[in-house]
Every structure is written in structure tokens, then in C-alpha cells.
Amino acid sequence: MTEKPFDFMEGLTKKELIELDSCTRCNECLAWCPIQDVTDDRDASPPARIHAYKDFVERTHTLKGKLFSSGKVTAEELKSFKDSLWKCALCGTCGEVCTVGIDTKKLWWSVRRKLKESEVGCPEPLEKGPLQNYHKFRSPFPFPLGGKYKIWLPDDIELADKAEIGYYEGCGCTWDSPQMAEGAVRLLSSVGPFTMLDPDQSWCCGFPQLTGSGEWSIMAELVNHMVKAIADKGIKQFVISCPMCLDIVKYLWPYFYGEELPFEPLAIVELLAEWAEEGKLKFTKQIEETVTYHDPCAMARPFMGKPIIDAPRELLGTIPGIKLVDMDRHGKLSRCCGGAGGMRAVNSDVSANIAKELFLEAKRTGADTMLTNCPPCYLNLATRTHAAPNSVVEEWRNYDDPLKINDITQYLAALL
Amino acid sequence: MVAEFWNIPKGLISVFYVFAFATVIIFVLGFWDKMRIWSKGMDVDHELKGMGPAGLIWLSIIKFFSPDCLLAKRLFPRSFIRGLMLVGIMWGFTLLFLGTVGRSVNYYMFQFLDGGVWLLFSLLLDIAGVVVLVGTGFGLYRKYIGKPERMVKSTQDGILLSLLFLVIFSGFLVEGIRLAALNPPAADWSPIGFAFGGVVKALFEAKVLSALYIGIWTIHFLFAFSFIAYIPFSKYEHIFASQISAYLFGNKWKEKEIPSDWVFTEEIKRRRDERLKQ
Known about the structure:
A: alpha/beta, Fumarate Reductase Iron-sulfur Protein, Chain B, domain 2, Rossmann fold, four-stranded parallel β-sheet, globular, B: mainly alpha, Fumarate Reductase Cytochrome B subunit
């Protein structure tokens, strides 16, 4: 233990402290938890985590703890709790189905931040990966930003120097799922001029540091830089492909910026649905296909923002020939893809197994194509690449499956 | 007519008061300690802004009596039968609590439980008791026999459910023995106690009922006081917490201009303040 005992309460909100006492262990969340779908690890379930952390708080702060326990939490206990806490993709389904309304997605986030401050820190792959990369490259990926658009920005797409519509693909799109960004800019350019930040100015939104490693101290610098860069481009509508970036930009940046943002952040599917409705977005090619749409957790159950569930369906509904069938679990109760929350890096096999479950559910709809709109979802499902060598993925790669997986913007760009 | 302390020796009544006093002290200490912890959280949620322990207790009471809580609105869509179980235990327990308060007022302050009022009161509390008994019985069944496929195991959960079940069961037994021994008029206005009395009569001779009553009454109050004292130290503290969580989750999408429960580290706050000064 450190000289000064670690304070498990400091920095938690009243709401979060009340939530620790709210869990009834009804076990409803276990029936929905993607980790529980593919493992028998009950310690990595929401009630077990809540009661473990509550026990830490009680032991170190309450009368009960002082009377009936050592009043301390050992390093081993903390290490075990850390393993359980990062065995989670932060999909938030547990909070959505929680019978007493515990906002688990945010609670895990706060507790991860607390553990980052403690002696056990965050898992090594996240500490050594995204966090160190951020300090060097201003992105969670180990590559300089300068050349990032060369990866995916087509030569025939022209960027305006300044424009009211600005596009932000997010690091995940650039380095993991560039097809998403290419699709988005093709659709945007089909309607009118738009701009993007200069690549070396287009930093990370902050999401991977906050949710993955729990490192929050970088946010003020990051937000101030980005808001200035966006304002300098004359951007009024800041259109974002990655739903996690959107949640952070729309709802957290104002806090660090200290006032309302001088532009409107919105999801690419929201703008495209609006344009399609107004007749601005026109498709020249025909298609006859049955598709199913996977609601990414960051859109269906965002950390802070309002769920975006109708917009992609409205967008698809404007295209004749496309028949949309929903999976049993869709909208606010959509399945997790296993790709977020640091899972791919820390628990690669579990992440791949979760993606496989979603894939199988999509197959049961009989759809020709599963569409989604999120870099980790796309990466985990379509490319099936994981940070660590992975037996599940190897097995899955050899599936003889007719179900295609695509990003919604890439899919629609092919119909222009 | 209310029969408080019927057949109970004076010495045992004194023991009862000592236990009652100790229970109240333990409960209040545990409960206040918990409220103190809650109120020490960062004051960033606008719904809880500035609330100390007293404010949080008041919010908990208000939200307990909200339709969302009393009708278990988040549980019914997930499971109708478990929704019924929760509503049964919650309503039944609340009625039994209010009934106990009523009986105490009647005994120590002014009498109002007489005639028809007493009969209705008896009937209502009997129904409340049986609802809690069935609810906790179902809870125990679900936990130990019809086990959900995925469950976090906890000894405390079993102890709590069993304790609540035993409090109610022993309460009916106490009532049944008294009705069997006294044969009061209109005893069937306490139908469950009356039924228990029938079983008691069939099993025991009349001469042992008096001693049996004292024994079961003692066990009943020990169970009841243990349960009450345990509440703020156990999972049952959700009785005070979960209605607040449900209320805040319901508000989650309503006030989204700026997130209400964001947390600043001191450094971030300092940097933000500096930027605003520029």
C-alpha cells in the first residue's frame, strides 16, 4: 500500500455513490451482458463489480468498515478488480436493462478513472499503447498525423479551404476502418463543398484516453486546440463518422471548453438522413437487397448524448430496393460488437467471441448485408482483425458465410 | 381490540424494549453513515445539487412513493412475475411498516384501532403479510431452486430473504397462537392468522399455547429487530438508494444541453478557468 491510503470515494459523484448502493443483485444484467454470453466469469459481471467497489468504499470510509474489516484494500484485491473492470466493452446494455436504473456505462468510466489514479493503473496494453501514443502523436495510434488522409482520402475528392460543413473521421476511421471515412466524404462531396481540418491539426477527440486508459488530464489542452482549429476553418456543422467521437465532442467538449461550442457537432447519418429527405442526396444506382442494421452501442446507448436509432433507418428507407430487417436485439438493446472499451487490446479472444455472437444473430435475420456505422464495430465484424493473435478470429475467418458486412456510408457511396 | 404484549411477562417486555432501543440505534448509525457517504460525493449532478444527508433522505422518501418506484416500471418490462414479486414485497412491507407505526401510535399515544377500524386494519395487514411471504418465498425459490442460468452468488442474499421470510412467518405464527388461545370474536378478519391458528390448534394442546406464544413471540421480535438493524449494512440499503438511481436514469436524456454529472479533476478545472479568463 502507498503511504497515504488510496481514497476510493474522492472524485466520485453523489449519483455514483448512490448507484453503488442501488444494485439489488437481481441478475437481470447478466442475461444481457456480452461478456457473460461468451464466458463464465461472474466476477466480470456488473453486480460483482458494483459490490466489489462498494466494498472498497465501505471498508475505507464507513463505520461498518472500521468496525468489521481491516479498513484496507490489498493490492491483490485491487489487481483482481482491475482485471474484471477492463473485461468490459463499455457497451452499456447492463445500464439499459438495469431494473433500478444504474447508469453503469458512466459508472465503469468513473471507476476506471479512479483505478488509473491508483497503484494498479490501467492495463499495460492501454498504458503503453494509446496513452503513450497520444503524448507523442496526439492520437491513440503510433503514427504521425501528417499523412493520415493519404490513407483514405480519394484523389478526386476536393476539400474546400473553408466551409460551413466540416468532416471529422476520427482516429478509428483513419487507422482501423478507413473505408468508413472514404464512404462519408464521397457522400458529402456529392451534395456540396465541405472541408476538413489539416491532418496534423486533426487530433484525437479524447475518447480512447477517457474510457480506455482512464487518463483525463489531457482533455483541456486537446479540446482547446480542436475547437480553435475547427473555428479557424469556418465550420458551422461538424460532421462526425465515429459515434464515440460524436458523444465526446458534443457533450464533453463544452465542459472543457467552458462554454457552448461555436459549431454544431452531428453524426454523419443524421445529416445524410436529412439530405436524403430533402432530396439533396441522390443515388443513381439501383440495388435489390435485404439488409440489417447493427446499432453501435455508442449510438444506441451513448455515454451522454441522446440515442441515434432512427436516423440510419430513415436514411436506408429513402432508397428503393433496400429492405431493412431488424435483428431480435436492436435499437437500445442492440448486441455489443466486443470492439470498444479497450477490449480488443486487453481481452482479444473475448472481444472476438462477442463479435461472433453478433454476427450469428445478424445471420439469423436472413439479410444479405449487415450494416453498421462505428469504427470498432466495423473493424471487429468486417475485418476480424485483433491486436493479439486470436484463435477465435482464425476459426471465424474460415466461415463460409454469405453475410456481407459493411459500413452504411461506404455501402451508400457505392450507389451514388 | 388490540392485544399488545398479551401473555408476555414484564421482564421479557423490558428485554424487548432494550432490543428495540439497540436496534434503533444501530439502524440510525448505519443509515446516517450511509447518507453521510452519499453526501460527500462530488456535487455535480444538478438534481442532487447541494443536498446533504437530510436532503437525500427526503429525496429518497419522495421517490419511493413515485409511480416509477411503486409500480416497478423498470422491472415489469423485463419480467412480469419478478415485477409482481417486487411490487408485492415493496407494498406489503410498506403496509406492515405503516401498520406497526399505527399500532405504536394506538398503544402509546391515542387509541384509534377499535371496532370496524381494527377489523379492517387486521385484514389489511394480514393481506400485506401474506403478499410479502409469497414474494420472499418466490425470491428464495428463484435463487435456490429455479436458479437463473447466470447469477452472481451471494450468501448475504439468501440470509436477507430468509430473514424477511422468517419475520413474516413467525409473525403469522404469533398471531395464530394468540387467536387459537383466545378465540376472540371476528378472528376471521385476520384470515391468515386464523388459518395458522387452526393448524396450531390441531398440533398443540391448549395448555401449552401460552408458553408456546412467549417462545415464538420472542423469536419473532429477535428476527424482526435483526432484520431492521441489518438493513443499512446490507444489500437492502437499496430500499433507500434505487429509487433515486431510477429517477436520475429517467432524467438522463432530458437535460442534455450540458451533461449534468461530469467530473472535473482539479487540474482540468484550473485550466478551464484560466482559459475563460483570457
